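INFO batch 0412 | record 1 of 1 | parsing
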Amino acid sequence: MKSLLAALLLSSLVGCMSNDVDGTEETQDSSTTYDFIQYGPGGDEGAWYDINDKLRAGFNDVCGDTFCEGDYSNITPLTFSCSVTTVKGQIHDCAFTFAASQTGVDSTTAAISIDMPTFTCHMKPATTGKKLIAALEASTDALHEPLPGIGSIYDGIGDCLQHPTGSTPLTNTYTAPPRYVSADDYYTTSANQQKWRGAVAAVVLGFNNVCGDTFCGSDYSDLMHLQLTCAVTKSSGNVKSCAWIFGGSFSTVSTNGAIAATAHTWSCPFQVSGTLSQLITTWTQTLPPGSEDPIHRALPGETTSAYDALAGCLP
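INFO prediction complete | emitting tokens
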């Protein structure tokens, strides 16, 4: 998060006109500066991070019944950021970034096809940064909190999430019976399906535990796991290849005061020389205290780990 805080301290010069939330106009000439919202009331620099956590949680609560019913079931909120005028602290622009993915395994070649778009949703609440922070901090449902000029942040992202950036059609072919399937489709019993989900959860937790001191120290300080998929031989359970997909974003304030948000996705491949069952065991087995975290454990039949795959892939 250090790089995000550093980014929040950036500012730029601009000239334009906007209406002040109290009904008076704030004249903005070439000497007017814009900056990120940085702190909550009393200079609490953790307030904006807390608001982002509330917005992510609120979005995740409603996604399954709303935005995630379409092609992308894992739309993931990244960061909500806003620019303000430094004279009166009036909101000039806000952007909420998201990433998503969907994958498929070619049933005859085992090739993994990946579609991993991003979304950058702009909105302009007609209020000041101080009032926006106070309203979202106090709200029990920040995503739906009524805000002047936009209705709510939920209202502000609705149409945007219908228009992905960088979307690419999946190119897999499917034959019956399939020779290769995805790891999600390999097991037929709920117990074994849960074992695979538990293995993915274990290695994702490993990523979350190390990200702050490693990958999340880059410009993309909000890196998020989107999906982990593997191509599996249906008859034997042998893993042909895997891909771990992530999303992240960073923002700056452009010269006209707009939030210039860059959202990006990455697909990080890694090899497994063993079965899906062996991969599950590698990531979920209980080892003595002091043993390596699942993300650092050598993959079946390999000398490298999932972490090693990310080290050459993520920024």
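INFO post-check: The longest helix spans residues 190-211.
INFO record closed
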